[in-house]
Amino acid sequence: MTSSNVNLLKAIDLTSNMIEFQVYKDALQMVYREILKGKLLSKNLKKHCFLIKEPHI
């Protein structure tokens, strides 16, 4: 999405609308709303740690 000039906020919104799994949908919608309020993306993603896959070293 970013290569097609869609900003990150819009990409999160679009993705949350495409996902059918309600847990992920709700988490992404909450992240989206918090970013609109001026909150940091990183802090919001940490609240929903299952959205971030830890690297396997």
Brief synopsis:
With 57 residues, the protein is mainly α. The chain is built from 3 helices and no strands. The longest helix has 15 residues, at 22-36.
Provide structural commentary.
This protein has one domain. It is 58% helix and 0% strand. It contains three helices and no strands.
* String of helices and strands: HHH
Q: Uncertain runs with pLDDT below 50, 5 residues or more?
A: none
Q: Roughly how much helix do the residues carry, as a percent range?
A: 55-70%
Main sheet makeup: none
Classification by helices and strands: mainly alpha
Envelope shape: globular
Give the total of beta strands: 0
Q: Report the portion of residues in β strands.
A: under 5%
Alpha carbon gyration radius: 12 Å
Task: Figure out the total of helices.
Answer: 3
Number of domains: 1
Mean pLDDT: 83
Termini gap = 28 Å
Helices, strands, pairings?
Elements: H1 8-18, H2 22-36, H3 41-47
Helix pairs in contact: 1-2
Features:
mainly alpha, single chain, 57 residues
